[in-house]
Design goal:
By secondary structure, the protein is an all-alpha fold. Among the domains are: 217 residues, Alpha Horseshoe (Serine Threonine Protein Phosphatase 5, Tetratricopeptide repeat), CATH 1.25.40; 121 residues, no CATH class; 149 residues, Up-down Bundle (Butyryl-CoA Dehydrogenase, subunit A, domain 3), CATH 1.20.140. Helices cover 61% and strands 2% of the residues. Strands 1-2 form a two-stranded antiparallel sheet. Strands 3-4 form a two-stranded antiparallel sheet. α6 packs antiparallel against α8, α15 packs parallel to α24 and α16 runs parallel beside α24. The longest helix is centred in the C-terminal third of the chain and has 81 residues. The C terminus is likely disordered. It is found in: Cytoplasm; Endosome. InterPro entries: ALIX_V_dom, BRO1_dom, BRO1_sf. This is ALG-2 interacting protein X. Keywords: Coiled coil, Cytoplasm, Endosome. Pfam families: ALIX_LYPXL_bnd, BRO1.
Length: 870
């Protein structure tokens, strides 16, 4: 009948159902179809269609085999392909008991829920209905196979259940009625059963969404809406299971499962909604909601026969949670709030929000592009059927346009009269225009004006971090420069390496520009803070929850001569109710037209008709006349009612001074819109500032790494040069004492001294000072120009990418004894190292990689203009 599966979830209720496929008997379609082609068309046509006939035979043979749960996707593809083949067979092969038709084919299918019951028909619609049923069943099995203990598994399961709902909806709308004709039928492919299974699959899909919503930590209000919709879907399925023909067709375990699920998710919605009410300190309604949830669970536990033990455990846990919150709320109300608890019957329905809908199977099952039996031209009956279908489509299209025009006329006329908004305003039920309400909700979701202070604090914190990094960079360079100056003073002309100031000019320039950027950014920050303070009163209206409380009220007149205000309002409301009834009737008439067309199958009559097709068409098309007449009467009644409403509304406007109310309401709308515009402007400026500080922080961090590398390299070079100078001084002293030939250490960048030294006698080996190669001094070339302050539009900072050489360890100093060599202290530390900061010849802006995207993104479209906002 159905499979069950469970998965660990936050609520413990994730026990779901999958549908087993219908079973059939072996059937040979190949021989009857081939015989029909050979008899009606030709043997040559039959030979040409041999491959198509073999394809259909293989589809039917594969369908008869027992399905394997591990190959559910392949089974799904088979069912879809076979259904499209049946659609093509239907238009070319009349299958019926008639002697001139394919009368040797009998489709036999067993009920999926009462397997002893079977349907046996010479009707291809039974075959199509059974295939659609099995398609929905396979999708439900795929949904059950996913790991619903994970977010991704629940998402995939939800998609599979949505597809299953789509298959059952397609069965209900397109095949169930035709398959149920005759005496040999089964309940599982009826319209009622297909509709119930569609609701059940939607309930399970929405349930997976609810589990993911809980896992993401959404607010109690959102969770309550989604949970309530789960319960509504289960309640709709339970309603279908509780009446004929499904009441006695399903096991009690089915009904118990669906009933418990409906109760659990209704109580879950009460529980979540109660959490939101507690946050709002609406304790009285919270108590009423929690009591309602407890009552639903208590009632559901009376019928638990056949239910899964996990569901009973879930009920007990949920009941304990609700009781705990209820006890807390009652205590708080008795001690603090002292509110009157409303009765459950006086509470409005819990809000619900559906995040699922049946998947459309129209394109999935469309056979128009299939090539099967494409060369088989339909006979005159099929052509006549196409002609009749066009006539029916024309009638339905004409009447549908009349209905749509009537509805549109009503909408426009009511909007011109400001109805029913003015009536709702009189009763205290205010409604903002949809666009303004959506904008306000977007502002409130993002935190509203109250959250701007926290974001301003983020700007201050990021500015402080950037200043600290900048100071640290300057301290590194200053410390190295001070040490270099000390040694230069100590050793005099023997200290031959370049001064720090000549090497760090580019770094100092960059740091100065960063400091200027920060100074300019601070000015922009101050402007933002002033804007927040100056417009706080304007934006405070956006913190009103609900926003409708900020709207002006439509009050009754203070003085009245005849006191007939109630009569005027009552008459207008009565007319509006009548107009609403006419609108509902139009919707029902349109559904009747579509339903009549869906059931309108004259193909058997065309196959057996010997007279004129025109006479048959006139007789059949007359079935639609009574609906067309009702549509005309509906449109005429609506027109008369609109004239009546217009007169009543004019009297209502005069008595209640509606024009003044409209003027004050429009003024309030403009105030809200102005507040939204200012909030968005400030929000955009703050986001731009946050992005600037994050980008600049990474750029300064990069330069800080360069400063550290520079300082480290200079320290190593300093130690080596001290050793070399000391050895040189020691060697010269030793030579003076021996009165031997002097050895002149070659000075950097002095070739003439080297030549003079070469003219001297070579020194004795013992007098040659031991030395090691000197590290070249750190001398970064020119750097690319840095960004300007964030008072301008900030580019994505491509220059501020870490050089690829950063982090490469410095090579260890060589200590082997070598003869003294000339040292060029002005060369780069790494001859082959040329990252973005050291490649002076690379085109500006062409740096490898890309700067990481800042974590702050604005919730509104970018504002056209600079960062400064007055």
């Amino acid at each position: 009948m159905a499979g069950q599966s469970s998965a660990t979830s936050s609520s413990g209720t994730n026990i779901m159902l999958a549908i087993y496929e219908k079973k059939t008997t072996a059937l040979d379609l190949y021989r009857p179809l081939r015989n029909y082609i050979s008899a009606v068309y030709s043997e040559r046509e039959a030979q040409n269609l041999e491959d198509d006939l073999q394809t259909v035979k293989q589809y039917r043979s594969d369908l008869e085999r027992q399905s394997d749960p591990s190959t559910s996707t392949a089974r799904r593809d088979l069912l879809q392909s076979y259904f499209k083949s049946l659609c093509l067979i239907e238009t070319r092969f009349p299958i019926s008991p008639d002697s001139d038709h394919v009368n040797t084919v009998t489709f036999v299918w067993y009920d999926a829920f009462k397997q002893k019951q079977k349907a046996s028909q010479q009707n291809i619609h039974l075959e199509k209905a059974a295939v659609l049923f099995n398609l929905g069943a396979v999708h439900s099995q795929i949904g059950l196979s996913h790991d619903r203990a994970t977010v991704e598994g629940r998402r995939q399961a939800s998609h599979a259940f949505i597809a299953a709902a789509g298959a059952f909806a397609y069965l209900r709308d397109n095949a169930a009625t035709k398959a149920s004709m005759g005496t040999s039928t089964t309940v599982d492919v009826s319209v009622e059963c297909a509709g119930m299974l569609e609701r059940l699959m939607l309930a399970q899909a929405q349930e997976c969404v609810f589990e993911n919503t809980i896992a993401k930590g959404s607010t109690p209000g959102v969770c309550a809406k989604i949970s309530r919709q789960v319960g509504l879907y289960y309640e709709e399925a339970l309603g279908a299971l509780s009446v004929a023909p499904l009441k006695d067709h399903f096991d009690k375990g089915w009904i118990a499962h669906v009933q418990l699920k409906a109760a659990i998710y209704f109580a879950e919605a009460c529980y979540r909604y109660g959490l939101e009410l507690h946050e709002k300190e609406e304790v009285a309604e919270e108590i009423a909601r929690l009591r309602t949830g407890i009552s639903a669970l208590t009632e559901a536990k009376k019928n638990t026969k056949g239910a899964a033990p996990q569901l009973l455990d879930a009920i007990n846990k949920l009941e304990a949670n609700i009781n705990r919150n209820l006890e807390r709320a009652v205590k708080e109300n008795d001690r603090v709030y002292l509110m009157r608890v409303p009765s459950p019957s006086s509470l409005p329905p819990l809000p619900a929000f559906s995040l699922v809908k049946p998947m459309s199977m129209t394109e999935v099952l469309d056979a128009s592009k299939e090539k099967l039996f494409a060369i088989l031209v339909p006979d005159s009956s099929a052509k006549a059927l196409s002609r009749y279908t066009e006539m029916v489509d024309d009638v339905i299209r004409t009447q549908a346009e009349k209905l749509q025009q009537g509805s549109e006329l009503t909408r426009v006329r009511l909007k011109e009269m400001d109805l029913p908004d003015s009536i709702l305003a009189l009763e205290g039920n205010f409604a903002l225009p949809t666009d303004i309400k959506d904008d306000v909700e977007a502002v409130q979701i993002s935190g509203g004006p109250a959250a701007l202070e926290a974001e301003l604090q983020q700007l201050k914190d990021l500015k402080r971090v950037n200043n600290e990094l900048l100071v640290h960079c300057e301290e590194l360079l200053q410390k190295e420069a001070t040490e270099d100056a000390q040694f230069r003073s100590q050793f005099g002309t023997r200290w031959t390496r370049p001064q720090s100031s000549t090497l760090t000019k580019n770094l100092q320039d960059r740091l100065n520009r960063f400091a200027a950027n920060l100074k300019q950014a601070a000015e922009s920050d101050a402007k933002i803070e002033r804007s927040v303070r100056d417009h706080s009163a304007l934006m405070s209206i956006l913190d009103r929850r609900p926003i409708e409380t900020a709207l002006p009220t439509l009050a009754r007149p203070i003085m009245s001569l005849d006191a007939n205000e109630d009569a005027i309002v009552g008459a207008l409301k009565q007319s509006l109710r009548q107009l609403e009834i006419l609108g509902a009737q139009r919707a029902g008439l349109e559904d009747m037209l579509k339903d009549m067309k869906r059931k309108d199958d004259i193909l058997p009559k065309l196959m057996t008709s010997t007279g004129s097709y025109d006479d048959l068409f006139r007789k059949e098309i007359a079935k639609y006349d009574h609906i067309c007449k009702e549509i005309t009467q509906n449109i005429e009644a609506q027109e008369q009612l609109l004239f009546q409403i217009q007169a009543q509304n004019e009297e209502f406007s005069a008595v209640f001074n509606l024009e003044d109310y409209k003027a004050s309401r429009e003024k309030c709308y403009k105030q809200i819109q102005a507040a939204i515009a200012k909030y968005r402007e400030i929000k955009e400026n703050i986001n731009e500032g946050l992005k600037f500080y994050v980008t600049l922080q990474d750029a300064i961090t990069n330069v800080k790494q360069q400063c550290s590398d520079f300082s480290m390299t200079r320290n190593i070079q300093c130690r080596e040069m001290i050793e070399d100078v000391q050895r040189t001084m020691a060697g010269l002293s030793f030579q003076d004492q021996k009165n031997a030939g002097s050895y002149n250490y070659p000075a950097v960048q002095q070739p003439h001294q080297t030549q003079r030294a070469a003219s001297q006698p070579p020194p004795e080996p013992q007098n040659v000072p031991i030395s090691r190669p000197q590290r070249p001094y750190y001398q970064p070339p020119d750097q690319p120009t840095i960004m300007s302050g964030y008072a301008q539009h900030i580019p994505p900072y491509p220059p501020y990418q870490a050089p690829p050489g950063v982090g490469v360890p410095y090579p260890a100093p060589q200590v082997q004894q070598q003869p003294p060599t000339s040292r060029e202290y002005g060369q780069p530390a790494y001859p082959g190292w040329r990252g973005p900061y050291y490649n002076a010849h690379a085109p500006h802006g062409q740096q490898p990689g890309s700067f990481p995207r800042p974590p702050y993104t604005a919730p509104y479209p970018p504002h056209q203009g600079g960062y400064y906002k007055q």
